[in-house]
Amino acid sequence: MEPSLARCGWRATARVRSAPVSNVPNPGAASGPAPSPPSGPGPLTPPADAAAPVRHPDAPAPGEPLGPHYEHCFGCGEAQPHGLRLRARAGEGVSITAEFTVGPDHQGAPGLAHGGVLATALDETLGSLNWLLRVVAVTGRLQTEFVRPVPVGTVLHLDARVTAVHRRKIYCTATGRLGGPEGPVAVRADALFVEVKVDHFIDNGRQEEIRAAMADPDQFRRVRAFEVNP
Ligand SMILES: CCCCCCCCCCCCCCCC(=O)SCCNC(=O)CCNC(=O)[C@H](O)C(C)(C)COP(=O)(O)OP(=O)(O)OC[C@H]1O[C@@H](n2cnc3c(N)ncnc32)[C@H](O)[C@@H]1OP(=O)(O)O
């Protein structure tokens, strides 16, 4: 062990204490057989009659940067000093690539990205896919897998694609790799987005920010245009 860590009282041999499951008190548990694990397709599996995603004819061309969807967005906004400032580009079909540089503001453990920040990077990349479908949608479910630790200073290379669409539901998947588009996989996510009207934000957002966003004619016109999407 590093002498400096030993001085801090860290013990490399420390283990989480555990007890046999049968000894753990659980007064609320019902008696009888344990419930069986869920079977069948989960909520992130598209139903059999789901359709393949269709790239909108007005979607940005492959390679074109998407730009932030909102300047105060924690994922992509320029006005968030500690945000991720994730940069996304349109890919082929209904796919996106993006980069996120992990900074000191994004740590969980010393020198490592916080898992919630990595989930945000995945969520933001997946959310950007809706710009290619030209719909407004929000995350309903996000299932993340953390495969490798991500050190501060790493450029996380993300790619995401829509796998299926069913009514208002958009099924999608994303991967984040260390150091380059072919680097080792560090994080993965599967998600379900649900299409909403702009009123979702107007009705639910704090009025101060909504008023400011509506006063920005470019932002408002662009988002409203998505609602008349064919
Ligand atoms: C001036 C303004 C400018 C605005 C400019 C905006 C710019 C554009 C910003 C985009 C931003 C992106 C940023 C990154 C992405 C986020 O991080 S988004 C933020 C995090 N997500 C949220 O806050 C969402 C919170 N949840 C909700 O608001 C509601 O639960 C939802 C998701 C809208 C769904 O509610 P709902 O519309 O009542 O949906 P409902 O009719 O019940 O369900 C529709 C279908 O979806 C299914 N469904 C719904 N929820 C779920 C779920 N959680 N799990 C599984 N299935 C579900 C239902 O089963 C149903 O399926 P079908 O019956 O069609 O088979």
From TrEMBL:
Topology within the bilayer: Peripheral membrane protein
EC numbers: 3.1.2.2
Q: Where in the cell is it found?
A: Cell projection, Ruffle membrane; Cytoplasm; Membrane
Q: Which reaction does it catalyse?
A: tetradecanoyl-CoA + H2O = tetradecanoate + CoA + H(+); (9Z)-octadecenoyl-CoA + H2O = (9Z)-octadecenoate + CoA + H(+); decanoyl-CoA + H2O = decanoate + CoA + H(+); hexadecanoyl-CoA + H2O = hexadecanoate + CoA + H(+)
**Domain Thioesterase: where?**
111-177
Please list where the region (Disordered) is annotated.
16-66
| First-tier enzyme category under EC | hydrolase
GO CC, any one term = cytoplasm
Q: Which UniProt keywords are given for this protein, alphabetically ordered?
A: Apoptosis, Cell membrane, Cell projection, Cytoplasm, Fatty acid metabolism, Hydrolase, Lipid metabolism, Membrane, Transit peptide
- Residue ranges with Pro residues bias: 34-46
Its domain of life reads: Bacteria
- Read off the Pfam families from this record: 4HBT (PF03061)
| Family indicated by similarity | Belongs to the THEM4/THEM5 thioesterase family.
User: What's the name of the protein?
Assistant: Acyl-coenzyme A thioesterase THEM4
- Organism (species): Streptomyces corynorhini
